[in-house]
Design brief:
single chain, alpha/beta, Aldehyde Dehydrogenase, Chain A, domain 1, Aldehyde Dehydrogenase, Chain A, domain 2, 2 domains, 6-stranded mixed sheet, 14 helices, 20 strands, about 20% strand, globular
């Protein structure tokens, strides 16, 4: 059970054993305003730094992350239940992202000459100010860094409102930037609740808002940002399609399917969630993933032999259980050990089949280790089913034909499509979706330009 506590205090709770690790009092209005002022003053200095200096600072961030990855990874695992090996990989990914921007910044920020008949003209990117980042619990380092690194690389400052349950991670991230030598106030952690958000977004210091979270949260933030004319980037929910065609390597596809569904215990916006398999391979595919999932064993996420840890919070597990029950009540079939209230944050892998279009869960995102598997006659039916979703984040197609892959990828209404590999977010590929999965792009130069002013000059 989650301990009763002051609602104006955020708790860091270890989902492995339910223990309270730390308490984090919410900041009062005057504290919030003081941090906004610090961020504004930092911007005046930070924006004037040479691009090369910002690149050096980013390289120092990468060095600190790599050198201190063991301690930082333990913090991630303590607050989220993520397997330690995955937490270590997450920290390294953040370091690589910082290095990537340090190396490419000069190429992306040089002025662009515009052709004119009788006049000279050019366009140049300039920073705009402080960006508010609202980040989730499931990748508490990576989702902050993939958002903040491009913002800071461009000369903006960053104000982090992290998830209530990952405040130790938030504080650790802030310390990384301080230790790297970023000017005071250029990266600030802000521990506030939802009811304090409007005042922050409305503040004149905030020049943009970026959010990674649920579609519901995205709607709320977009409405507030629109009210105060603040640009936004929204990376929201996903129900990614995993399409298996008749010529796919079935063994490889089954391995990819299990990995794609179970990554981070299924708690990923780009985890494969809807498995769409052509009829000739359906039975063998379904049996194959059942056999693979049956081998997953719960255990301490700090132990190397553990293959599955807890979900990040008990309420997330009970929400998933409610969705599964809703699916069953509407005619679906379930394979797997049923969730019990005594299971707490531990959720066994499961598979839903016979999920018809009139089943409410058909259009929902299952944020945890439960897959929906569908049988279709051919590739055209697969694309139709894949697009029959309110979400449009990503998809993957499993086929030996690159020609077929490119033809089908062009028909998918999503932001990203991968061939014979599960969806991942990489600093070298633009990241973002369509429909209720949000808008805007993170990473690469697109993430850099998202909160910058493209100023044209004619002379």
């Amino acid at each position: 059970m989650v301990p009763t506590h002051n609602p104006r205090v955020h708790l860091s709770i270890n989902p492995f054993d339910g223990s309270v690790i730390a308490e984090h009092p919410l900041e009062l209005r005057q504290q919030v305003n003081a941090k906004l002022d610090r961020s504004d003053k930092a911007f005046a200095l930070f924006r004037s730094l040479e691009q090369a200096t910002r690149s050096e600072l980013l390289s120092k961030v990468a060095t600190i992350l790599s050198q201190d990855k063991d301690r930082l990874a333990h913090t991630i695992t303590a607050e989220t239940g993520k397997l330690l090996k995955d937490s270590l990989a997450e920290v390294e990914k953040c370091a690589n992202c910082a290095t990537f921007y340090a190396q490419h910044l000069a190429d992306w920020l040089h002025p662009m000459e515009n052709d004119q008949d009788t006049y000279g003209a050019k366009s140049t990117y300039y920073p705009t100010g402080t960006v508010l980042g609202i980040m989730p619990f499931n990748y508490p380092f990576w989702q902050v860094f993939r958002s903040a690194i491009p913002v800071l690389a461009g000369g903006n400052t960053y104000l982090l409102k992290h998830a209530p349950s990952t405040q130790l991670c938030a504080k650790a991230i802030e310390q990384v930037f301080m230790d790297a030598g970023f000017p005071d106030g250029s990266f600030i952690n802000l521990n506030i609740d939802i009811d304090q958000l409007e005042d922050v977004i409305a503040h004149s210091v905030i020049r943009g808002v970026t959010l990674t979270g649920s579609t519901k949260a995205g709607r709320g933030v977009a409405a507030l940002a629109g009210k105060y004319l603040k640009p936004t980037v929204l990376e929201l929910g996903g129900s990614d399609a995993f399409i298996v065609l008749e010529d796919a390597d079935l063994e490889v596809a089954i391995d990819g399917a299990v990995q794609g569904r179970m990554v981070n215990n299924g708690q990923s916006c780009i985890a494969s969630k809807r498995f769409i398999v052509v009829e000739p391979l359906y039975d063998a595919f379904l049996e194959g993933i059942k056999q693979e999932l049956a081998h997953y064993q719960f255990g301490n996420p700090l132990v190397a032999a553990t293959t599955q840890g807890p979900m990040a919070r008990i309420d997330l597990a009970t929400q998933l259980a409610d969705q599964v029950q809703q699916a069953l009540d509407s005619g679906a079939t379930y394979w797997g050990e049923p969730y019990k209230p005594t299971d707490g944050a531990w959720y066994h892998p499961g598979i839903l089949t016979n999920v018809a279009a009139n089943n409410p869960v058909y259009y929902q995102e299952l944020f945890g280790p439960v897959a929906m598997v569908f049988c279709v006659k051919n590739a055209d039916e697969a694309i139709k089913l894949a697009n029959d979703s309110p979400y449009g984040l990503g998809a993957c197609i499993w086929t030996e034909s690159l020609v077929a892959f490119h033809q089908l990828a062009s028909k998918l209404d999503v932001g990203m499509v991968f061939h014979n590999q599960i969806m991942v977010s990489q600093y070298s590929i633009p990241f973002g979706g369509t429909k209720e999965s949000g808008y805007g792009r993170e990473l690469t130069e697109h993430g850099l330009y998202a909160f910058m002013n493209l100023k044209a000059t004619r002379y």
